[in-house]
Amino acid sequence: MPLLNTTDVMVLGAGAAGMICAVEAGRRGRSVTVIDHARAPGEKIRISGGGRCNFTNLYCGPANFLSGNRHFAISALRSFTQHDFIDRVKAHGIAFHEKTLGQLFCDGSAREIVAMLTGEMAEAGVRLELATQITGVNRSEAGFEIRTESGDWLADRLVVATGGKSVPKMGATGIGYDIARQFGHPVTETRAGLVPFTWASNMHESWGALSGVSLEVHAACNGAGFDEAMLFTHRGLSGPAMLQVSSYWREGDTVTIDLAPGIDVGAYLKAERGARPKASVWTVLTDLLPKRLALQLDTRTGPVPPRIADMSNADLDEVVAAIRAFEVVPGGTEGYRTAEVTLGGVDTDAIHQKTMESRLVPGLHFVGEVLDVTGHLGGHNFQWAWSSGVAAGRAA
Ligand code: FDA
């Protein structure tokens, strides 16, 4: 098929990173085309944050990211910060609030962020081609050739913004990784991140019965720890604390959970031993823990003296240890079906950190989640999309 269309910059993917990149390049006077196979742009923005989009985090910084190269994100995060994005949101009159831990959400709807970006694209003269299947990309002396079911394109620059593999139902595919490999780019192992855990078979029946119980915990795994809420579900453990540690978890690893962080459980139990000697230790613990959980812990640690008064300090210390370090070896995770992000991706060693341009193929850029840069929960992943997208848009 002859090459029908030309464009200075071709952006593959009309998600967060692709759209902001297109705006930036378009504002520089480049002719920009964005292609997506979805029927609407920014679908993940629309559903994010329960429909309110946690679009950035006041405290976002390099420490909030996992990557094979922990220095890679620094430059882009500094060049286009959370405050730059917040200014933009304010300029569009979008009302927002801080929910917790610096997490900024729209007061109204995530659709306002999508509308902001599509409006800016229109103003910058960006052409948006939706419902378009990409059938292949190639590089010739003329530039990048992009083949689609509805026609072929020739571009000076190609920006891959096709995201990760998370939530295939929302249009996620691994095409970005395939394109990277095709051009000789290493891709680090990819796996589901920010994802609920599933029970191992030995815990499923008893602990699954706690479905609906939630509490504030400190959860730790492989050197990372988070103070947030945890939720028991029928399938396993969820809630922000579990999603956060899931990004650090590998099959077979133990997740250690402090069920009463910041509370001196030992001192409390010892005081109650004097105050209500006839109560069982687990009844006393229902003051500190959700009742169903306290009673379940009782079953788990086996027979205990019936009255707290009959328990020695060593007995109480054992109970405290069980609460301070509740250990779970999850059976697995719910995988890409429900994961918020994909860990791993295009290896950043072969990418220029200021421009997101390939060190191997001039004119080829990768932005957003397709790269091996993954944020913590709380708006960091969108901030990475904005920062990396702008970095590429200023150069492409
Ligand atoms: P993104 O996935 O947004 O965009 C990729 C685009 O490429 C999509 O439009 C897709 O259709 C297109 N595409 C893929 N394959 C294609 C192909 N073969 N052909 C053509 N087009 C193709 N983060 C955060 O910071 N705050 C939050 O509140 C949330 N909430 C949240 C909720 C849920 C349910 C999920 C799944 C994820 C989040 N996230 C989040 C994570 C956040 O959505 C994610 O990190 C960014 O959307 C990544 O932006 P990208 O532009 O890189 O990819």
From TrEMBL:
Names of required cofactors: FAD
Residue ranges of every copy of the RsdA/BaiN/AoA(So)-like Rossmann fold-like domain listed in the record: 8-394
Entry keywords, A to Z: FAD, Flavoprotein
UniProt keyword Acyltransferase, yes or no: no
Ranges where the RsdA/BaiN/AoA(So)-like insert domain occurs: 191-341
InterPro entries for the chain: BaiN-like (IPR004792), BaiN-like_dom_sf (IPR023166), FAD/NAD-bd_sf (IPR036188), RsdA/BaiN/AoA(So)-like_dom (IPR055178), RsdA/BaiN/AoA(So)_Rossmann (IPR057661)
Protein name, entry field: NAD(FAD)-utilizing dehydrogenase
Record organism: Hoeflea olei
